[in-house]
């Protein structure tokens, strides 16, 4: 495995990252094999959102959104 001892391959709602849009299909790979499972936002205690909820904007918008996330504000549940 090219020096990797443990890896997670994640696909969720058409994206290659964990997100609260939908159920995530995860393949956990180790030197002993792999296992596949589904992880839902609800299992993590996170409400679902839409792709539009994750969209940013220009630099000022993104800065404002990031500050809200750090302060536990409006977009906090959308950032995993």
Automatic annotation (TrEMBL):
Signal peptide interval: none
Origin: domain of life: Eukaryota
GO (cellular component) term, any one: cytosol
Stored InterPro entries: Anthranilate_Pribosyl_Tfrase, Glycosyl_Trfase_fam3, Nuc_phospho_transferase
Keyword match Zinc-finger: no
Record Pfam families: Glycos_transf_3
Sample GO molecular function, one term: anthranilate phosphoribosyltransferase activity
Keywords: Glycosyltransferase, Transferase
Domain Glycosyl transferase family: 2-75
GO biological process, alphabetically ordered: L-tryptophan biosynthetic process
Protein name: Glycosyl transferase family 3 domain-containing protein
Source species: Aphanomyces astaci
